[in-house]
Amino acid sequence: MKNLFTGMLAMTLFMASCSDNSEKTEVVTEQDMQTATVPEMPIDAEDTALNSIKDNTKTDGVPAEVVVKETVNDKNKTTEQQKAFNASKLIDGYLILKTSLTEDDSKSAAAAGKAMVATLSKIDASSLSATDRKKYNDITADLKEHAGHIGDNANSIEHQREHLVMLSRDVDDLVKMAGTGGKTLYKEFCPMANDGKGAYWLSTEKDIKNPYYGSSMLTCGSVKATYKK
Fold it and tell me: Could you please report the per-residue DSSP string of 4-42?
C-alpha cells in the first residue's frame, strides 16, 4: 500500500511539472527579440538569455513565448542570396520526422531521417556568403549525424528521441540563419524531456503534440517562440 501511494505521488508531481509549464507564455516584440536569438547555446543558457528579454520574465528557468519575424536572417545577406538558397526541403523533412515520433512511429521516423541525409546532398549553398556558408556547413554537419542516427535506429524509438533533441537544435539554428521556408513555425518546449533538462522541437501547429513522449504524454509542453513567415 505504501509503494502504491509513493508511485501515485511521483506521477502527480511529474504531471504537475508539465501542466504548470504549459501556462507560462508571453509575447515579446521583434525589437525585443533582436538580441535574444543567439545560436548554438546550451539549453540552460538559451533559457537564461531568453528570460532576460524583459525585466518581468519568469524566474523558473523557462523562457517566455517570443514572436519573431523572418528577419532572423543575417542582416547583411542580400535579397538575392535569400531567394537563391532554400532550406525548405530540410525543414519539411524534419517536420515529417518529428510528426512520426509524435505518433510513436519509429519506422517512419527512420525513413524521414534517411531522407533528410539524402536531401542535404542536393542543397546548393553556393549562393550564401562565406560567413553564412560556414554557419550552414557547421549546422548541417551536426544535423547529418543526428538524422543519420535516427535513420539507422528504426527499432529503437528511445534512441531516436535522444537524437531528436540535438536535431531540433540544428534545425532551429538553420531557421534562424535561413528563414522558415515560407512557414509559420512554433518553437515548443517540454520540461520533462532530455532526462528532465527539457528539450525543444519545431512544429507548424500551435497545439502541443509532444514527439519526446508521443501517446504516453502527448500534450506536455508549451509554445516558447513563434517564427513568422
Answer: HHHHHHHHHHHHHHHHHHTT------HHHHTTT--SS--
Residue the block writes with cell 508521443: 214
Which set of grid coordinates corresponds to residue 205?
501547429
d(CA 146, CA 150): 6
The three grid cell numbers given for residue 52, joined into one nine-digit string: 532576460
Q: What is the pTM of this model?
A: 0.73
Strand residue runs (E) in the chain: 66-68, 185-190, 199-203, 222-227
Whether 228 and 66 have beta carbons less than 8 Å apart is answered as no
Q: What is the pLDDT of residues 29-64, one digit of tens each?
A: 233 333 344 334 344 444 433 343 333 334 344 455
Neighbour-count burial of 57, counting CB atoms closer than 10 A to its CB (0-12 exposed, 13-18 middle, 19+ buried): middle
Closest among 208, 144, 152 to 171, alpha carbons compared: 144
Q: How far is CA 85 from CA 90, 131, 133, 214, in A?
A: 12, 14, 10, 33
Q: Report the sign of the C-alpha dihedral through residues 195, 198, 203, 208, in that order.
A: positive
Q: Are residues 229 and 183 in contact, defined by beta-carbon separation less than 8 angstroms?
A: yes
- Give the SS3 label for residue 57: coil
Angstrom distance (rounded) from CA 57 to CA 175: 24
Dihedral through CA 180, CA 184, CA 190, CA 194, nearest 10?
Answer: -20
What is the C-alpha to C-alpha distance for residues 224 and 24, in angstroms, rounded to an integer? 9
